[in-house]
Queue: 4 jobs
Job 1
Amino acid sequence: MDESLPRPITLLRSALLSDGGLVDVAITGDMVTEVAPAGSLAASAEGTLDLEGRLLLTAPAEPHAHLDKALSADRINPPLGDLGSAIAAWAAYATTMSVDEIADRARTAALALLAAGTTAVRTHVDVLSHGGTGTVADAVRGARALVQVRDELADLMDIELVALAGPLAPDEHVEAVLDLGVDLVGGAPHLAEDPLADVDRLLAIAHRRGLGVDLHADESLDGPVTLDHYARAVRDWPRDRQYSAGHCVRLGTLGPERLAEVVADVAAADLGVITLPITNLYLQGWQHPVSTPRGLTAIRALLAAGVRVAAGADNVRDPFNPVGRSDALETASLLVTAGHLTPDEAYAMVSDAARSVMGLPAAGPVVGARADLLAVAATSVTDAVANAPADRIVLSRGRLVARTEVRRTVARTRTVSTERTSVAQLVP
């Protein structure tokens, strides 16, 4: 294994495409420049990487992470429970965190994502206002940590930051977080006493700053619906910014007429929707021990309307989700099981659709696309989603940034000799 990473790659040899073709892929800088039958292209030995028939895919992108919370579960030891319990456990722990402690966990989580193939991450970071009573210095701790990690890892992966402003976070604190170079405005208006007013407050901050928006929206099985209000508000806003909503669980519980109305508003605004199966399957439905709801948004209705629907892992080993592998193939598998998608549809939602919702250039083994690529020891997309092979090769912007090799040894079975008697021999 070559440990000198990142390493520029100019040729991927013997790559298996999802359509079954075996090809060579030429890369110039950070772009795919040629795809040709295997064995037909040449490059320097230093720039050539033989994939030996591994499946070559668009690298996953994570459209909704919480790197500031990641890997905190063992420190918090939170009770198992719903969204309210998770928020309370996190709020209590957040008062104790230092910038260095947040950065250490976030860095570890980001590199785990990269090793699994994810080359771009959009992560929310809490405005740590302690219910509106904290200082500006308190409020920006998480943002300082994640800006530091983003800068440290800039040569390896794309990290985009969203200011997650709770309903009690003063505008002054939100502005201070944005002043550090956070990219988007976010929040959780459905938790506010007046949800629509909080949507308007956050949109006003974004409009004033000329920033995009990514809100947590309607993360419950009942309660307010804010998604259509948000969609109508940004419908005519500048399209050089990104507008998206994560969770949207309430949408999955609406009746046909109301669902159609909200979906139409979302489609008209070209609002990206991000479904988060692992966390919402865990957090939602605790109050419904019989016929427990799935806790997902209305994926099929959104796709049918032409809405860009991405999927992410959300939380990883924190009060909001005690498990998680930081692996987009885990998210894709859950979409197949709980969302009734095909493996190809599911993988597209954690790769191509995720990049679209994040405003990133198209990537994949296609001429003219960004060379953000994942090679896995699999024979098809279905095989990859089903088995999540640990053997992976990751390219970010045309450079080899991670490689995991697996050696498997299985004991031999006993050879048993059996004598077979034909039916004819048994007939008298």
Note: The longest helix spans residues 99-116.
Job 2
Amino acid sequence: MCLCHALGSTRCHAWGDSAVVPMAGCGLCKRADQDAVTFGETCRQDTLCIHENCLYHASGLIQRSADDQGFFGFFLPDIEQELQRVAQKMCCICRQHGASVRCQRRRCSHTFHYPCGRERGCISQFFGEYRSFCWLHRPKQRVRGVPQEHPNCAICLEVVEERPSYSTVICPACTSSQFHRDCIQHLALSALHFRCPLCRDNENFQAEMLRLGIKIPNRVEIWEEVGAFEDLYEQQISCDASVCLCPLGREHSDNLGTRHFCSSIAEDIDSWECNICSGAGNGKKCSTGTESP
């Protein structure tokens, strides 16, 4: 997936564009905003600038490839065709042309820009067919929260509504944790393992948040792709004692750190720490073979 504009660059390396040009408005929603929480990432080719979330929810677009190809898996000819299709379609919220998102409820004619829909209380889902619904037909929570005199958001601790609404969502598992929609969306985008902050439920909580239009990225895959844990797989293969007594040299050892023999540790001791690792004065043995105080 293209991270160029998410990182503040005006180049799009996914398309090989090396020219630095001023930011333009998204071809679909016409806004130049780069708020990743609302619009997702941003990519451009030549004069065309596109928000990720606007692409995913454009009713006439089909993602034909993987996220890291083209514009988040959408190809330029398809995007240009969609821009022509929606050119005269009016947004039922802002009354401007270019509305590309259509309510999926049967016989509903509401069409809107993706960010306009968010501001009006529409819901766009980030799974399956990526369906969108207007404020009249959006999915609603049927759970009843645990009665509280002054309910607060479990994340920001500010006041929330007493019952589920577009701006207030409830954990379906414990029904006692309530959140602002924006707070839970920020958490979903930043948490490595997204779950209810209070009861720690995962499966039911994620399924309900997806149904309510919360975008949940696959954080595990993202961390693996950038090699965040590569250092955990590195193994030290040489002895690091100040004087190595092995006749075959330091590199011969297949143990970690310092050899037992080189560090003068008794054979019956199977666990030790140097002063640095355990804190000054508390070490059981130090790596040079000197007894700790």
Note: Confidence is low (pLDDT under 50) at residues 1-22, 280-293.
Job 3
Amino acid sequence: MKELFFPYPYLVSALDNYYGVKSKPITAKMKDKGKDSKRKKERKKKLKTKKKKSKPGSKKLSILIATFWDYPHTGGLSNYITTLREGLRSLGHKVDVIAPNQFSQVNVEKLREVIVPELKTFFEQRYGSYTSKIIQSCRLLYIYEQMMKSVKLEKYDILHAQDLFTANILGRFNEDLGKPLLFTPHGMFTFSRVKFSRIEKGSVEEVYYKEIEKKAIEYATHMVILSDSFRDPLSSLGAKPVKLTTVNTGVDFKTIERGKTSGKIVISCIARLGPRKGHSDLFNALSRINGTSSQVEVQIVGDGEMREALETQVKSLRLPNVRFLGKRDDVPAILSKTDIFVLPTINDNLPISIIEAMHSGAAILTTNCGGITEIVHHNETGIIVEPGNVSQLTTQLKHLIGNEALRKKLGANAYRYAKNHLTREAMVGKIEGIYQNLIDSGDE
């Protein structure tokens, strides 16, 4: 009988436990690569000896930044990777970015044709059924790992995964390489999907993805987190505090001198038009404030699956002053004419759009999601309301519209904070320091 492809063995163990399947013998193909490998131990010993001879902080590094998502693309993750790459290069380091879309799509399709039937057969024979989400995830993991075999990972001093999936793939290769492997989660993958009913609580998908998150944490030498809000959820999955360093996202923002094109107060919301960003709450709040049509111009920047529904809502609420601008590549120019930046998000981490708005000097009105309150301090660098609380949003928005002095004070404070703490140089300098410390200590 033809040997089948098996998912990662630790995932099989988690699924066996979920389904109540008595663990079956693990074939050589299922074994973790390099486990208890004598070669691995010897290599790590050599690396430590070699690294201790180098002068602290003196080395220009070769760095691999890897992501499971296509790069480049529109969105915060892609912007973060570009900022990190360019910042590190400006310091003299060699930096490569690897993403699935950089590999041959012809080869990807060939692997897909082979692997999908094998995965389905494996799950049917072992558990009697399969789910499309897990089949898709296993397929993507397998194909990306096969493609990654063509990359000479040994030439890099640092491996930096930008998601849980890449951390698992690099982690498996790194069992033999023994390199410093960093992991930066840009969200709590499983928790977020359960919260918004994209997967059911207690389901096999929750078990599967949670196991991937746990293994990513285990594989990581160190974790760079975007805000302190990640600490508790990561700790609940096994992360040790000593392995977590918070580095707030910084941006290379080209500030344009503030100016106005009309006598109206300009409100801007820059975000993907999805269910988590709270656009509907913003429109409901605007509909409760009398006279906004003559006083205020509202700009909605971004696109997404909810655009049609949101446009319908705006028409039904009779908000003629709301304009949908779609995707734009002139965000600094838009923000330079913005008086109030509103992001009524109901689930977020540390949105780059808020950081950019702070650099522009606009007054910020947002919610206490994720790490937002670590940079937007209520009544100092912005105004904070509870996510989903339209009444609070209405009150604070009306207050900002009617108080020019407050808008200017909040905008100026936000600008100063951003220039001091949320620049590319600040972010990259801290991350480079983490890299150098790992290299200098020989701590793989």
Note: The chain is about 45% helix and 10% strand.
Job 4
Amino acid sequence: MTNLRRSARYLVLVLLALIFVTPLAWMVVTSVKTYGDAQRIPPTLLPDSLSGYGYRQILGNTSNPVLRWFVNSMLAATLHALLVLATASMAAYALARLRFRGRGLLFALVVGTLFIPPTSLIIPNFVIADRLAWLDTLAVVIVPGAASAFGVFFLRQFFLSIPAELEEAAVLDGANHWQIFTRVLLPLSKPALATLAVLSFLTNWNDFLWPVYVLFSPERLTLPAGLGLLQGAYVTDYPVIMAGAVLASVPVLILFVAAQRHIIQGVSRSGLKG
């Protein structure tokens, strides 16, 4: 019976893996098809011959500066993740360790903002960005989302799992709150910080709606917004679109593989296990 259960478990895992991997495999295969192969009905799994047509169109077309969009997205997502770590870690430390009146109410208000639909904030954020003269600059896709309520909640849960005795020992050694925060809590919170950094990077990297509203110049677009321009009004060039999707997926896959161990540790210790 045990072997039967184990076999059934492995079968389910294999099926789930196929469900998740198949779209990625189809994307990669389509990106190396010719335009004619990609338009065939019924569609074919494998192309008659490998073609670099999609990648040549992506990388060699000066009217669509895909590499510039790639650099813009990397810069915006990286700086956004760093800002989220800075703001969320300090707020989480205050809500987890400092004692002050209204702390519970303040934390409830922060968590309550998670229930506000992000699309309802587009107009207020647009008006603020316009008055700050940030429209059509990278600052407008870096700063507005840096106050992350989820990041505060996530890091607060992790900070609460760290024994308070470590801080008490630091106080006896003469450390103040800033020294406790930077020299005790942050070094012990590397898994949670890495997890939040990856999640923040992915959120900014995959954001499409906000950049479309606030970035106007072709050379300032981020990759998701720029790839949307490759979709024609009447014709869809699937190899080109899939080549762009492959290009957009590479940094995400590398980042996830590099931080996988920290992500598992961070989620398991923050009380967010399913």
Note: DSSP finds 14 helices and no strands in the chain.
